[in-house]
Amino acid sequence: MKAIGFRQGGSLDREDALLDLEVPKPVPGPRDLLVRVRAVSVNPVDTKVRAGAKPSGEPMILGYDAAGVVEAAGSDVTLFAPGDEVFYAGTIKRPGTNAELHAVDERIVGRKPRSLDFAEAAALPLTGLTAWELLFDRLRVPRGGGEGQAILIVNGAGGVGSMLVQLARQLTGLRVIATASRSETIAWATQMGAHDVIDHRKPLNEELARIGVKAVNFVASLAASDRHLAIYPRIIAPQGSLAVIDDVKAFDIAGLRQKAITVAWEGVFVRSIYETPDMIEQHHILGEIARLIDEGMLHGTMTRDLGEMNAATLKEAHGLVESGAMVGKLVLRGISAG
């Protein structure tokens, strides 16, 4: 089958950074679905793995977000059948979705929202799962709770931020404060439902004071966490919580001790990597996200469609993600079988 991958990691300016390949068709395991991929999205994790990976032997195929149609099911599959339309975020420990066909454990797969096409649906799984787990599992905000409290979402116009702003606004009583710095990102975060938008290029304490907020109860630090760490003890309320998703080289949280601030790390692949007893929870979360999309409570975050996936268009997508200037999510259509 056709796929896009690489034989040597490194920077995107390499001629062989991403290649059109022919690889064997995946063989689904007992709990796997074999999915014909109809669309994918690209996330920062794709670019980071590509830059640092050292494949041994076989070429490495990336890709996590996908939407497609179940073509075959393993012997122990109970949740889906051939012909079902699905979407999911995959796992970092298996070959990825940048291919015609992909094998994925049914426990991390959801039924595609009926109201979205495949490209729109492919933009949602990884960011939706990350935002959901961060809000309800890591920050432990009760669904429907949070009245009289506030959450600060740093980088509110990115992929995860776009979903987190919506979830916090629609499913909690929190005051939702997002950060953004450009006119288009400010407009996007507002469109997603933020009550307030402040500028993360300026001191966050001063920006919060500008809107009459002395401290927030929750911070979702989605970018530049090491740069903002020094200010977090000043802007998080006593017994508040901080959740982080980005890569940091040094992160000394001793300054948070005096206020007994809880620190948590969100990792969307943890359940699938370790096959935790609650691994199927991602199936349920995706089902709930699909329901909320179809009911109009949540909205898709796709902002750019780069057309059919091949080495050239996927390389363009990686470059856009690496630029750090993306608003929402970009997608590519599945590889043509022809």
Automatic annotation (TrEMBL):
Residues 10-332 form the Enoyl reductase (ER) domain. Keywords: Acetylation, Cytoplasm, Metal-binding, NADP, Oxidoreductase, RNA-binding, Zinc. CDD domains: AL_MDR (cd08252). This is Zinc-type alcohol dehydrogenase-like protein. GO terms for molecular function: oxidoreductase activity; RNA binding; zinc ion binding. Homotetramer. Belongs to the zinc-containing alcohol dehydrogenase family. Quinone oxidoreductase subfamily. It holds the Pfam family ADH_zinc_N. It is found in: Cytoplasm. SUPFAM superfamilies: GroES-like, NAD(P)-binding Rossmann-fold domains. The lineage of its organism: Bacteria, Pseudomonadati, Pseudomonadota, Alphaproteobacteria, Sphingomonadales. GO terms for cellular component: cytoplasm. Its main location: cytoplasm.
